[in-house]
Amino acid sequence: MEFAGKVALITGGGGGIGRASAIGFAGRGAKVVVVDSDATTGEASAELVRQRGGDARFVRADVTKSADVQAYVKATLDAYGSIDCFFNNAGIEGRAAPTQEYDEAIFDQVIAVNLKGVFLGMRHVLPVMLKQGHGAIVNTASVAGLFGGPGMAPYVASKHGVLGLTKVASADVARLGIRVNAVCPGPVETRMMRSIEAQRNPANPQAVHDMTAANTPTGRYVMPEEVANVVMYLCSDFSSDITGTHIVIDGGRSGTGGAPPAVPRPA
Fold first, then answer.
1. Tens-of-pLDDT digits for all 267 residues of the chain?
2. What predicted TM-score, i.e. pTM, was given to this entire model?
């Protein structure tokens, strides 16, 4: 999987899977544009790429705002002239709470980032790829997009939606030289999972981690680099006839019915 001469645009590139993907693409020759709402972590990811001899730039953006999305697309084209790989990855976890108690404002925020942000990314990157006549998009969904679980209503709904958007977009452009796929990670060793663990058991988040790992056939969480490897595969010529689908990366957890613990109710 070589990306010499290609440009990879990555949203949510400030940490976790996004940062691992930025480093992975750059290590295989791509020029990388890191997009994140957090300037500190986003610039840190770009600097890590540069320290390894890669070519990277950071663009701060709110993926829920069309103007910001258009700005990161323009910045990428101004810097490098094309967008060959687009990892549409930005996402947030929201809060863990029962549906009947879920805060409406947080619900709206999660849907805006995780679903509208993915739509806006494709809305403004696809015209660039269509003009080029080539390109590959990978959207970050989740195993939460394949089944439900307690306490994560907007997250689960948004990730189901990401899979729907992926299928529609892929059908729209399949005969025009563009491929659109999704990845569905399970629990990954990232800040997001630390947040979810702490919400599910504030007194002992490590217990949630240990139980989740124990319920996974491989006995552990996925590493960000393992998800990045699948993203790069889906952007590479090795997957040249793969579009409109998703790949699950969860250590076999979803195949065995592993489910998160119930959300603790307030006293």
1. 899 999 999 999 999 999 999 999 999 999 999 999 999 999 999 999 999 999 999 999 999 999 999 999 999 999 999 999 999 999 999 999 999 999 999 999 999 999 999 999 999 999 999 999 999 999 999 999 999 889 999 999 999 999 999 999 999 999 999 999 999 999 999 999 999 999 999 999 999 999 999 999 999 999 999 999 999 999 999 999 999 999 999 999 887 665 544 444 444
2. 0.93
User: Mind telling me the catalytic residues?
Assistant: 155
Residue 238: Cβ-neighbour burial (10 angstroms; 0-12, 13-18, 19+): exposed
Fold that domain 7-186+223-248 belongs to in CATH? Rossmann fold (3.40.50)
In the chain, list all ranges with CATH 3.40.50.720. 7-186+223-248
For 77-80, the CB contacts below 8 A with 24+ separation are 77/128, 79/31, 79/33, 80/7, 80/31, 80/33
